[in-house]
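Feature request, filed as a ticket because there's no other form

It would be nice if the structure record came with a short human-readable summary line next to the tokens. Right now we just get the raw output. Example of a typical job, pasted below so the devs can see what we mean:
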Amino acid sequence: MVTEALGFATFPPGTVLLDKYRIIRELGMGGMGVVLCAEHVQLGTRVAMKFLLPEFAALPDAAQRFVREARAATRIHSEHVARVIDVGTLPGALAGFPAPRGPDGEEVAQPDGPPGVPFIVMEYLDGVDLGRHLKSTPKLSIHEAIDLIVQAAEALAQAHAAGVIHRDVKPANLFLTRASDGTPHVKMLDFGIAKVVEETAQQNLELTKTRAVMGSALYMSLEQMRSTKTVDYRTDIYSLGITLYELLTHTHPFMAESFSELCVKVSLDPPDPISRHRPDVTDELGEVIARAYARYPDDRYPTVASFAAALAPFAAAESQAMIGAIQRIDRAASGERPMVRLLTPLTNPVVTVQRPTSPPRPPSTMPWGVIASGLFAGAAIAGITWGVAQHADPIVNDVDASADAATRVIDATIDSALPVTSAVPIPIPIPSASSLPISSASVGPIIKPPVLPPQCKRGELDYLLPNGMRKLCPR
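Raw output as currently delivered:
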């Protein structure tokens, strides 16, 4: 009976609520509420109405939180999320909601009247949740199980992009219906409701013994067992991995008879390998699933999209398009997040960019011994060159005019960090006779304005001749 399930005084089938919804029958009852099939009076369409159970609704501010979280779920736009049509609070007096009672069973007076009953109106779905489907199905193939999980992953990807964490992913909240072409179609239920239930359970320790908490504990991550306020999106990835494990094996990697025992096992014991219950699951697929429900969040997949991508090699061709859609959703959402790689130090070889550099410039300071040797060598070369010029042919010798000039040009560049290859190292440019045009003895030296090549104009100390030798830039 609907009246017995809700604990209401008067709520029989055929009752019209808020002048809009006519109750038809009860659809089911879970750990946190009861779902009724109703009909919209004006539109004539069927809807599903979910009411929060009395033990939760009687707690302070529970109704407001329930409605607030349900409204947040309306931001999710996915074909794999049950659409929320309406939210509200049914006045307690209208529903005949029983007044709260004290420790001795006496009624507690309410100055504002009986508390209201929060409800959510969702689209009506024809089918069964995966929890019941597993009981009637002996075994799902690997492709079938992965396809159902990939559809649920698409719903979570849309939710995470909207900033909503489900916190209660499990087969009972995955409704299996049929698409227009007859293929299995998953709809995720109860977005935003689990957080309200867990917060109210923490306020009342007796509620931790109810089916609301124990029904979801097998799918809770370790961090969610400790505190629901500090979890992030990776707690949903943990629950999704446990759900896939159950779809393939009809059991869980951690089994216990009490909540406290389960917490200890999840904290300390290794999970039961999936291959023990499903031999046709390869080691590679088993590792992919095990990473999803890893004990610590940092060891899991960072996003639900990365989990779906890891399942792609084992999925059927029909699931590949959905996996691609999940990747696009994640990329669109990550575009609004700061780039983590920009925070990486430049010493990281992954982000260091190698750019071409010009030849190193000689150091500005040199040891005095090297400088003195260079000055002496420059003077000696100038004297030898002058002596040769006294007996040379009276033709102006331009060292840049022919390849014979190679015998008169020496490499006068030195780098203290590199091995010296020239016979007489000259560390710094020194003006000398060798760098000036030379004429015959009768005329005397003729000084021409030096022609600066492009390399010297750019500030380089020397430049390359056609014969492969280098020449100092005039200074």
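Something like this underneath would help us a lot:
The CA atoms of residues 92 and 166 lie 28 Å apart.
The domain at 1-100+113-124 is CATH 3.30.200.20 (Phosphorylase Kinase; domain 1).
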